[in-house]
Amino acid sequence: KKANTKAFKMMRISRIFRIFATPLVFTLFYIYYKEATYDRNIKEYSLDPLPDSITVDTHGFAESFGINPGPPKAVKKKDDGFARVQGKNVDHGMMDLSEVNVNVKAKMELEDKPALKVGLSENVDYADGFTFPTTEELGLNWSPEIKEQMSMFLHQGMNRKRQKKHGQEIPKKRYPDLIITGAKKCGTTALKIFMNYHPVFQDKPGERHFFNRKEHWNQGYEWYLSEMPLTYNDEVCYEKTPDYFDRPFVPERMKDLPNADSVKFIHVLCDPVRRSFSHFLHMFTVQGHTDARVKEGFEFLSNNFGELSKEEAFAETIELAFKNLLGGKELSDVSDDEIRESVRDYFTKWDLKPGDPNRVFPLRIPDAILTGSLYSVHISTFLHYFTQDQMLYLDATELIENPGKSLRRVAQFMGVPATIDENNFYFDEEKGYYCMTPPVESGRASFCLGSEKGRSKDKVLPDELKNRIRRFYKPFLEDLTNKYSGDNYDHWDW
C-alpha cells in the first residue's frame, strides 16, 4: 500500500512537472530559435565586427531616407564593395564602401528602398502624420483562404493603401510589363529608386538575374513568376537586372516570355568612356566575390596589374581589350567601318565550342571593359527579337541633371499618369544634387540622392587615353543615334 501511495505521488509530481515544464521548454526553444535566426542573419549580412570593419556616422545616410540612425553603426566591409548597416535586428540597406575613406552621405548606394525584416516600415520612411487604413477598414469580402494567402501582403501599410484603392480586386503575380536591362554603371539603381515612389510601378527589392544566371534559368518560368511582386491590373510590374544588357544570349531567351509581344525595355545609357572606367574600378575592388566570372576578372587584374595605379592598370587593360576586339590591328590604322567589321567578327567567335583557340569571351576581363559600352551592338541583338516600339533609351546625363523629365518619359512610355515629373524635384545648392518631393498621395517623405555613387568620381584619366577610347566607340555611337535612339550624345565628353 505504501509503495502504491509513493508511486501515486510520483505520478502526480511527474504530471505537474509536465504541465509546467512543457511551456518552459517551448519558451526556451523559441528564444533559442530567435537568437539563432538573428545570429544567422548577422553572419549572412557579415555584420560581425571583424578586423576590416569600420565605424561610420550614418546620419547623412539616414536623413536622406527618413531612417532613425541612432548612434554610429559598425559595418563590415564586404568583398563585393558593399556592406550592411548594422542596426538591432534591422537591415537598414546597402552602402557603397568602394572608397577607402567612406563618406556615407556622398558615396552610398541604397538598394531600392530601406528594407526591414518585416517589410517596409509603416512609420519610418513615410511622411509625418501619414496613416494607413487598417485591414478591418478595407471591408474585404474575400474567402478565408484568400484572406490567409494575403495576410503577409496586407501586413504592410502601403499595401493596405493600395488595396483600399482597388476595392475587392485580388492582386496577382504576373510576368513583368517592363524590364530595366542596363547598362551597368549607368544609374539603373537611381532610376529604380525614383520609380518606386510612383504609385503605379511595382517591383521587389534586388535583382532577379533570371535570364543570365544558369541556376535561375534552369528553374524555369514558374520560378521567375514567383519572384514577381503582387500587382493589380492598373499597375506596372517591373524588374531591373543590368546584367541582361550585354549578354548576347539574353534577348533570345526573353523572346519566349509569355508576354513577349507586349513587354517593354528601358536601356539606361551613359558616357561609354566613363562607364568603362567605372566598370574597371568595380572589378578591381571585388576580391572574393562569389560570382565566378567576377572573381576571375579580379584575379586577372590583380595578377597582371596589381602593382600599378588604377589609372595605369586601366590603360593596360584597355590596350589588351583593343588587341582582342580588333583582331590585333592598331586602332590608329583602322577606319570606322573596319572597327565595326572587326567587332562583328569578334562576336561571331563568341559561340564557338569550348576549347576552340579562336573562341572569344566578351563577358570576361579584359574584353568586358570595352564590350559593355558597345550600346548599339547590344541593342541590335534585342531588336532581333523585339520591336523598336518596345524600347526606351534613357540618357544617364538627363537622369542626373533633370530626373523629373526622365520619370515623365518613363510614365509616357508605359502609358500611365506622369505622377512624378520636374515639379517633384529641386536642386539643393548646398548639397550640389537633386532632391525629390514625392507626390502627396504617396505619403512618402522627401529625400535626396547623393550626386554620384561613382567609383570614377574625381578620378582623372589622361586625355590621350580617353581620346583613344572615344575613337574606338565613335562608329557605335553614330549607329546608336542614326539607327536606334535618334538622340545626340556630343555631351558625353568626360
Provide a descriptive summary of the structure in words.
The chain is α/β, with parallel strands linked by helices. It has four domains: 1-44; 50-110, no CATH class; 116-170, no CATH class; 173-494, P-loop containing nucleotide triphosphate hydrolases (Rossmann fold). Helix content is 43%, strand content 12%. The chain has 20 helices and 14 strands. A five-stranded parallel β-sheet has the order 7-9-6-10-11. It starts with a helix and ends in a 9-residue tail after the last helix.
Q: How many domain modules?
A: 4
Low-confidence stretches: 34-124, 451-455
**Quaternary form:** single chain
Fourth-level CATH superfamily of the largest domain: P-loop containing nucleotide triphosphate hydrolases
Disulfide bonds: 435-448
InterPro entries: NST/OST (IPR037359), P-loop_NTPase (IPR027417), Sulfotransferase_dom (IPR000863)
Pfam family, one: Sulfotransfer_1
Domain Sulfotransferase: 176-476
